[in-house]
Automatic annotation (TrEMBL):
GO terms for molecular function: transmembrane transporter activity. It is found in: Cell membrane. Keywords: Cell membrane, Membrane, Transmembrane, Transmembrane helix. The chain crosses the membrane at residues 6-26, 33-54, 60-84, 91-111, 141-158, 185-206, 212-232, 239-257, 263-283. This is ABC transporter permease. It comes from Ramlibacter tataouinensis. It is a multi-pass membrane protein. It holds the Pfam family BPD_transp_2. InterPro entries: ABC_transp_permease (IPR001851). One of its GO terms (cellular component) is plasma membrane.
Length: 306
């Protein structure tokens, strides 16, 4: 049973990386912006956070550095796509490629660096509960933050005036503009907020989840996070559930190897990506369902003068 408790704990930790990034991308897409640069932003944030902790020994400064890196790259993406009306998909791909190359260059000197001993967290009383304690209540605070963030986004998007305005910008920016809302600035704020969350995911990856720096260590998680927004039909609770589902698939390969099941490691490594393809293929069989849930102006440029 202890091994299953460890599997649950590892699933929550792995899913947190995907949850933070996919919830950030959800905010972008609710405003009508598609950012394919999540992979690059997460890589730059990972090295920014890791390098900050190496020099300061403070994890929270590392998280702040990661968020700042993600926000700056997202702001550059927003300026290009929202004000200069560059193609969102091409610009996002360029950002992803830039982030991969830039992080590899900056991180050359940090490949052999080691972080200080990682602190252990436990919820008082609950953390000592047999089985449930190690599985659920000895997690890093950012694991609980991701769950709280999803709950807050549900309230924000569907119960607050600001969330209604954000969704209206994603549904019909011309109508929001006619009502006097600054559509471009709202979209830029959503893009920066999404970038900061992707940055937090990248920093969590390099500082807590795998406390080291390796070139390309995000390893496709940015693309999975992007797919999760569609998998979750642009709803925070479903996106969070999908993140932990894919986190569980990722951890399952190590659990199976640990139990001695003779399965080729290459097959186990490809499981998360195979699951992503299968889920997207199944969802795509019902395009009407996607159209009902997808923001109507997703990926479409907005020209205030038109």
């Amino acid at each position: 049973m202890d091994s299953y408790a460890l599997l649950v704990a590892a699933t929550l930790s792995a899913g947190t990386v995907l949850a933070l990034a996919s919830l950030g991308l959800l905010v972008n897409e609710k405003a009508g912006i598609v950012n394919l640069g999540a992979e690059g932003m997460m890589l730059c944030a990972a090295i920014a956070g890791f390098a900050t902790v190496v020099h300061t020994g403070n994890d929270w400064l590392g998280f702040a550095a990661g968020m700042a890196a993600g926000a700056v790259l997202a702001a550059a993406f927003g300026a290009l796509t929202i004000w200069l009306n560059t193609n969102q998909y091409a610009t996002g791909l360029a950002l992803s490629l830039f982030g991969a190359g830039f992080s590899a260059f900056v991180g050359i000197g940090y490949v052999q660096e080691k972080l200080p001993p990682r602190p252990q967290f436990s919820v008082p009383v609950l953390g000592d509960t047999p089985l449930l304690g190690p599985a659920l209540f000895q997690q890093h605070p950012l694991v609980y933050f991701a769950i709280a963030l999803a709950a807050w986004l549900i309230w924000f998007l569907y119960r607050s005036r600001a969330g209604l305005v954000l969704r209206s910008v994603g549904e019909s920016p011309s109508s929001a503009h006619a009502l006097g809302y600054p559509v471009r600035w709202i979209r830029l704020a959503a893009v920066i907020a999404g970038g900061a969350l992707c940055g937090l995911a990248g920093a969590y990856l390099s500082v807590i989840y795998t406390p080291l720096w390796i070139e390309g260590m995000v390893a496709g998680k940015g693309w999975i996070a992007l797919a999760l927004t569609t998998f979750g039909t642009w709803r925070p609770a479903r996106v969070l559930l999908g993140a932990y589902l894919f986190g569980g698939v990722t951890m399952l390969q190590f659990h199976l190897q640990g139990t001695g099941i003779d399965v080729p490691s290459q097959f186990l490594t490809m499981l998360p990506y195979l699951a992503t393809i299968l889920v997207l293929a199944l969802i795509s069989r019902n395009p009407a369902w996607i159209r009902v849930n997808m923001p109507a102006s997703l990926g479409k440029p907005f020209y205030p003068g038109s």
